[in-house]
Amino acid sequence: MLRRFHLEEPESVKDASDLLARYGDSARAYAGGTELLLAMKEGLVHYEHLVNLKKIQGLDRIQHEDNLIRIGALATHRQVAESRLLQEHLPSFVRMEQNVANIRVREVGTIGGNLCFAEPHADPGTLLLVFGAKLVAAKGSSQREIPAQNFFVDAYETALEEDEVLTQIQIPLPAERSGVAYMKFGYLERPSVGVALLLALGEGGSIADIHVAVGCAGPAPKRVEEAEELLRGKSLEEGSLLLPKAGEVAGRAAQAISDLHGSQEYKEHIAQVLLKRTFEQARKQCLQEREG
Ligand SMILES: Cc1cc2nc3c(=O)[nH]c(=O)nc-3n(C[C@H](O)[C@H](O)[C@H](O)COP(=O)(O)OP(=O)(O)OC[C@H]3O[C@@H](n4cnc5c(N)ncnc54)[C@H](O)[C@@H]3O)c2cc1C
Fold this sequence. Notes:
By secondary structure, the chain is α+β, with helices and mostly antiparallel strands. The protein has helices at 13-23, 36-41, 77-81, 84-89, 91-98, 103-108, 111-117, 124-131, 148-151, 225-231, 236-253, 264-287, and strands at 6-8, 27-30, 49-52, 62-65, 68-72, 134-139, 142-147, 152-154, 157-158, 165-172, 178-185, 193-201, 207-215, 222-223. The protein has a 5-stranded antiparallel beta sheet. Strands 11-12-13-14 form a 4-stranded antiparallel beta sheet, sandwiched between helices. A 3-stranded parallel beta sheet has the order 1-3-2, covered by helices on one side. A hairpin with a 7-residue loop joins strand 11 (178-185) and strand 12. It starts with 5 loop residues before the first strand and ends in a 5-residue tail after the last helix. The structure holds flavin-adenine dinucleotide (FAD).
């Protein structure tokens, strides 16, 4: 049962962050409520004050400026999945969002809430890592940019301070002749393993740059620099031959945990398979000269 709480309804980010600072541990920001209210109903957590962010104008905006996409933290999964602007510039992100949860959760759950809750079995964080995205956090009248790589600290733990509000996700557009793929696997409600890969080809078709990230299997999504180093600078053919090795490295980097989703070894194996498949998908996109 849901215990009583006070609903605060600030109309600016500054007021929201001031309220969070004033009430400290007894308050939490509240967006779609799909995680927070569930946890409160089940009695896992209780907050005397919920700071509703939905009255703040413009926090759900999706914009394109130069080489950057800005997604407001209050944009719902549905808004992201249906955005024409994102479909044109970041189709891989749209595809990932179309497959988050179910239609009811996508309708009210926000991208910001997903990232801030840092539930290990979540999709967007893994893909944001390979884009080299930054997350903008505001506190009072100041703000800072946190690289996605530093944002996810542990299961249910982020780099946000207690009175910081996540306002925006900034995603740099991938270079020309690059491809981006995200694939996940699981048979429960949330994914068991997710792998994201960004591949950029240089002159002569060599791997000019590659970013690999693995998520869901362990406490937090991770960039796998060791796997990237194995593949960077190689020809596509050499890269393909090195994929089993890179997959092994990615599996280990996932820090997979044995749980209801499967054993550690099983998840490591799935990470290896997904790495191979995302590489193939990204390679095809590169050869079509678009991020598709
Ligand atoms: C049945 C089910 C299936 C799901 N399946 C998937 C899945 O397949 N893949 C996947 O990725 N996710 C999945 N999810 C998670 C879903 O994406 C999240 O529940 C949703 O995005 C959370 O957003 P929200 O706005 O509802 O967050 P809320 O519940 O409102 O908030 C969650 C947490 O984030 C904090 N918070 C929210 N917004 C901000 C902000 N702007 N600044 C600071 N703190 C903030 C809150 O204080 C709270 O601690 C699933 C959830 C459910 C219930």
